[in-house]
Design brief:
Blueprint: H1 24-35, H2 38-48, H3 58-86, H4 90-93, H5 95-98, H6 104-133, H7 139-155, H8 157-186, H9 198-210, H10 213-220, H11 226-255, H12 257-262, H13 268-273, H14 277-287, H15 289-306, H16 312-327, H17 335-359, H18 362-365, H19 379-392, H20 399-412, H21 422-448
Length: 449
């Protein structure tokens, strides 16, 4: 039985080699479209005032966007390279870092994350459509339509990426430029604010970017080269995310920060109200399906790490149905806390992988077999990096959780300084501990000789 839909499509199981069909333009178009999110427009409120009550100046917000995007996309780009070199999806790739059985831990976390993101995306697609068409079509209908479209795209994922490059990306660029011209003329002057919450804003932007680390290899394994994968991620995603969040800042200013804080979909009003706004906003709403597609597809290939011989089409349909069901009842008010959790889990994991693969010679011995032995020592830097994130971040999430880490800081006598950054703190600690584990491993190996 053949394991491929077509020679230039993703194999149906992990038993077949991944085709290398995506060039730098394909990768760039994919990641640029993933960076332009309707959730990003409403999420600009977190960028402007990440701590609540201490808004940034416009210059500080835009600088945080650029700095956070570059840091986050560099992480995503580097995490894509091993996927290109091994031809394995992200969670299978982690067999080389943790071992086959231990890779199930980040795999389950990633499945939970991707299903959550997929539900968020179906919600925002539906709310965007309702902002254009009103209540004439019920919310549930839009969710189901978006869910069906998402699931269909996951059946032919590489074809969907080529569709993005050839047609959708140009339409999105035109739409963004159109709204930028309109908003720059309509928005009130962006004055006032401080730089006090600059690092929490950078944390937020990094979290937006780094949430894609666990799925970068899912697409990069089909890249023609590591350079194409890295360039496509960093170039496409950085430019588009800066544009998206910058546009969101002005949209929030027009809609009113208070209105957006009370209802995040209020940020859609300026888009629809602009001249020809309904038309161009419809393009952005339709394009949002690439976000839900990426999440459902990544969930599918993550599940294949647990069930490598199951046809991905069956998994895609099952995940698509589940995502629709969740989207019908999802609570989107925890979006900021959700991003904080993502950053805390996957930033240190990326740092451990990057150090082990690129600096400790892991690329030459990476074992992605189903019986890859467990590497328990790699859990230590990941766990310490996770702790470092919460010790150094100043971005609020859930009161009880934040209070617990405040107690930990007090108990160990640690003072969090205003310049500290959770994502960077987690990455640095995880990287240094990984280097120490590697040195200890070499010393032990040498002593046995």
């Amino acid at each position: 039985m053949s394991h491929a839909v077509h020679d230039d499509e993703v194999p149906l199981t992990l038993q077949s080699a991944a085709p290398k069909t995506l060039g730098v333009l394909d990768q760039g178009a994919l990641w640029a479209n993933l960076a332009v999110s309707l959730l990003g427009f409403s999420g600009a409120l977190f960028l402007i005032d990440p701590l609540g009550g201490a808004p940034l100046t416009l210059a500080a917000a835009l600088t945080a966007t650029v700095v956070g995007s570059l840091i986050g996309t560099a992480m995503v780009g580097l995490s894509a390279i091993p996927g290109t070199q091994t031809g394995q999806p992200a969670m299978v790739l982690l067999r080389g870092l943790f071992g086959a059985r231990l890779s199930y831990i980040p795999t389950v976390l990633n499945i939970i994350q991707m299903i959550g993101w997929g539900a968020f995306e179906l919600w925002v697609i539906s709310m965007g459509a309702m902002a254009i068409f009103g209540d004439t079509v019920p919310y549930a209908v839009w969710v189901i339509v978006a869910g069906v479209l998402t699931t269909v795209l996951t059946i032919w994922p590489l074809g969907a990426i080529r569709l993005l490059r050839r047609y959708i990306t140009i339409a999105v660029i035109v739409s963004l430029v159109w709204f930028a011209v309109q908003f720059l003329g309509d928005a009130p002057p962006q004055t006032g604010g401080t730089w006090a919450a600059f690092m929490p804003a950078v944390d937020y932007v990094i979290a937006l970017s780094v949430s894609w680390v666990p799925l970068a290899a899912d697409f990069a394994r089909h890249s023609r080269s590591s350079r194409a994968a890295f360039t496509g991620v960093v170039g496409g995603y950085t430019l588009a995310q800066v544009a998206c969040l910058g546009l969101g800042v002005y949209a929030v200013a027009i809609a009113g920060a208070g209105a957006v804080a009370a209802d995040s979909t209020a940020v859609f009003v300026p888009f629809v109200a602009a001249p020809l706004g309904a038309l161009f906003f419809a393009i952005l709403v339709l394009r949002e399906a690439d976000q839900s597609f990426a999440n459902v597809y990544s969930t599918t290939v993550s599940l294949q790490n647990l069930m490598p011989r199951v046809d991905r089409r069956i998994l895609s349909i099952a995940i698509g149905v589940l995502t629709v069901a969740i989207a019908l009842v999802v609570d989107v008010t925890s979006y900021g806390a959700f991003l904080g959790l993502i950053g805390a889990v996957f930033v240190p994991m990326f740092a451990v992988l990057a150090v082990d693969y690129f600096l400790l010679g892991g690329g030459a011995r990476w074992n992605t077999a189903e019986n890859a032995p467990s590497r328990w020592s790699m859990l230590l830097p990941w766990a310490l990096g996770f702790a470092a994130y919460w010790l150094t971040t100043s971005t609020p999430t859930v009161a009880a959780w934040d209070g617990m880490w405040a107690g930990v800081r007090e108990a160990i006598g640690f003072t969090r300084e205003p310049w500290m950054n959770g994502a960077l703190g987690a990455a640095i600690v995880a990287a240094l501990v990984t280097l120490a584990v590697g040195a200890l491993r070499r010393a032990t190996r040498d002593a046995r000789r």
